[in-house]
Amino acid sequence: MTAVPTSAADVARAAAAAPDLAGLDAVVPTCRACPRLVAWRELVGAEKRAAFRDQTYWARPVPGFGDPHAGVLVVGLAPAAHGANRTGRMFTGDRSGDFLFAAMHRTGFANQPTSVSRDDGLTLTDIRVTAPVRCAPPANDPTPDERRTCGPFLGRELQLVRPRVVVVLGAFGWQALLTTLAEQGWDVPRPRPRFGHGVEVTVAGPGGAALVLLGCFHVSQQNTFTGRLTPEMLDAVLLRARAVGGGG
């Protein structure tokens, strides 16, 4: 059995040793490498939100979710304290996820428009959701060191899934993904492309690989409630992802 990662070096070794996506998804929830994140996610899981007082919180790192052979990978920021940190599935159990999965359903990537728990029957086709930081951070704000520590998990996920397109939700995810790609030997342009909604960048990788990055405003309530990101805008990005490299 793989040892529990308790340092950045442990994370790198555990990620590299994962033989397949199932192995990676199994080791991610065991990680205890970032003391601040471990303390916060467990505190939230113990104190709970009143609406979920009778539920048992996941309160661990959250693995990616979706089609293991996805042509499209969606990269967010980190699990929400009372969303994925509660349910154990990316973008599940909060309004950001409601907005995202409804769009995936409209655009043919999801079999249903809602995502409320790990056993709700949701399946994704040709798309997978993940994040550069796997634990819920205080104030939804991971530190650069926490991003770097968690980076090998995202790097290994990219190697195993081998998507053709990445939809990146927000500036944090954009910078984190570019850093991870650079660490893996991809030819990230210099200066680095700036994030923006609708920005499209192709990055060349080892062995002639190519990855198209599509920028999209994050599905946070700050964006969706104010109309900065509308359902039509998100649908357009997902449909572009399908046209560029997705299946169907």
Q: Would you write up a description of this structure?
A:
With 248 residues, this protein is of the alpha/beta class. The chain has helices at 8-17, 21-27, 35-47, 84-87, 95-106, 144-161, 171-183, 221-224, 231-244, and strands at residues 65-66, 72-75, 127-130, 165-169, 200-204, 210-216. It has a single domain (8-244), classed as Uracil-DNA glycosylase-like domain (Uracil-DNA Glycosylase, subunit E). It has nine helices and six strands; from the N terminus they run H-H-H-E-E-H-H-E-H-E-H-E-E-H-H. A six-stranded mixed sheet has the order 1-3-2-4-6-5, sandwiched between helices. It is globular. The mean pLDDT is 95.
CATH superfamily: Uracil-DNA glycosylase-like domain
Query: Helicity level, as a percent range?
Result: 25-40%
The poorly predicted ranges are none
Proportion of residues in extended strands? 5-15%
CATH class, anyone? Answer: Alpha Beta
Shape: globular
Distance between the termini: 39 Å
Number of structural units classed as domains: 1
CATH fold category name: Uracil-DNA Glycosylase, subunit E
Major β-sheet annotation: 6 strands, mixed
**Rounded Rg:** 17 Å
Overall structural class, as computed from helix and strand content, comes to alpha/beta
Give the integer mean of the pLDDT values. 95
